[in-house]
Amino acid sequence: MKVNGYRADDLARVGLITRERWVMPLWMSILGVCFRALGRFLVWLVRRGLITGPALVLLLAYGKWDWPGPAALLTGAVLFVIAWWLAHPASFRRVVGARLLGQWRLMVRYRRLWRPAMIGGQLAVVHDEKQYLPLIRRVRSTRWADELRVRLLYGQTPERFALVAENLRHVFGAYRCTARELKPGVVTLRFYHRDPLEQPLGPLPIVDVPDLRRVELGRTEDAVPFLLALLGTHVLVAGASGAGKGSVLWSLIRALAPLVAHGSVELWVIDPKGGMEMTFGKPLFARYEDTDAEAMTELLEEAADRMQARTQRLKGVTRQHTPTPGDPLIVVLVDELAALTAYLSDRKLRDRIKAALSLLLSQGRAPGFLVVAAVQDPRKDVVPFRDLFPTRIALRLTEAEQVDMVLGDGARDRGALCDRIPRALPGVAYVRLDDDPDPVRVRFGYPDDDAIAETCQLYAPHFGPRPILNDEQEAA
Ligand SMILES: Nc1ncnc2c1ncn2[C@@H]1O[C@H](COP(=O)(O)OP(=O)(O)OP(=O)(O)O)[C@@H](O)[C@H]1O
């Protein structure tokens, strides 16, 4: 035998060091193969613990008590399952239903098409002539969607999956697919097969004692209530004409109505479009302006002054204001912000408005001043301080570029397709909350005129809009 042109016997002479080859005996190779197969079988058993665990228990019971053993166990288990289902259907669906349905969908849908889907999406890796596929670790399903937990191959990122989410949804026949990182090396793919947001919601029921950290405004794509935290934030609502901005604002006003009646929330409302939208709610509003630009400016400046006075009062006492009837959360609500920041012809008023809004947005969160603003056109020259809104809601938008303007960089790549929301689905939006980069798809409740009139009747403070006092007057 020759190595690099030398005879093997001469290698030591030319300075190459060789090792003696050790040949593994056949019995040891066979033992190794057996151990590996056994290990794989055990892993397979553990992964299917939902089936193999109970089967093992039944087998043990049979060994100990013969047939009566497993029969008694099965009867007990069936009774337990029925009782659980009847007593706590939600937890039953989450713990048992989602797993069983997930296993079923894995078998009939995902296993079959996983390889072609990964190859088509260029997510399969070939190394040393061997093909590797990202591994499905588990599947949980509801009647609306399937959630797949997938182990990434080395070198892959969740963004790679997000980029081909559109390809994947076509393979698996879903109307939408999202990919998000669960933890390093693991991505969650969600395939939505039925859309719970297709049907309009109508006005949501009003909670007697609303929690400002969890205000219900609509439903999410997973058919659960959409809850928004209103303490310590500002909310920007963007959408084309007819996209449903009004339904977001009215859902919010209705949800806050009991606190308005209680006095722990005050609504200061500006409708620069002449009052077509917000006039109906006047009895609920502590301050309201819709035509006079000077008066709208003064309202905003007054809010900024009160905010600064409250900041001085709370300085060193607390870091987050707690709303009470004497010291309410002040919600400054502006329908069509662009009318104040861009379309107003009087430049001086525009500058005063921008100054007051900048103050409220940059300093108002901690002392309990919340700005909620709606806008049709989210461009920076129209809404110069859009980055100061931690909570952004994007309804249907006219152009794809507007999505990232409203929801932040990369939001569209992460699945917020606001420009593709059909006109037939007003009130459908993508929401980005400050602590989560992944947008949530929701539909807001739609309070019609009757619901708004009823809200005013039930919750308007009896004393009418309160005079605005400065902090010293209020203390007195
Ligand atoms: N959440 C919703 N669910 C069902 N239908 C809705 C919803 N929101 C709005 N709509 C329907 O869409 C219509 C337009 O909605 P809305 O007036 O709120 O849009 P907008 O974005 O405020 O438009 P504009 O900027 O022109 O005022 C409503 O009259 C209503 O019929």
TrEMBL record:
Keywords: ATP-binding, Membrane, Nucleotide-binding, Transmembrane, Transmembrane helix. One of its GO terms (molecular function) is DNA binding. It comes from the Bacteria. The keyword NAD does not apply. ATP binds at G239, A240, S241, G242, A243, G244, K245, G246. Gene3D superfamilies: P-loop containing nucleotide triphosphate hydrolases. Residues 201-404 form the FtsK domain. The chain crosses the membrane at residues 22-38, 45-63, 69-87. Pfam families: FtsK_SpoIIIE. InterPro entries: AAA+_ATPase, FtsK/SpoIIIE/SftA, FtsK_dom, P-loop_NTPase. This is DNA segregation ATPase FtsK/SpoIIIE, S-DNA-T family.
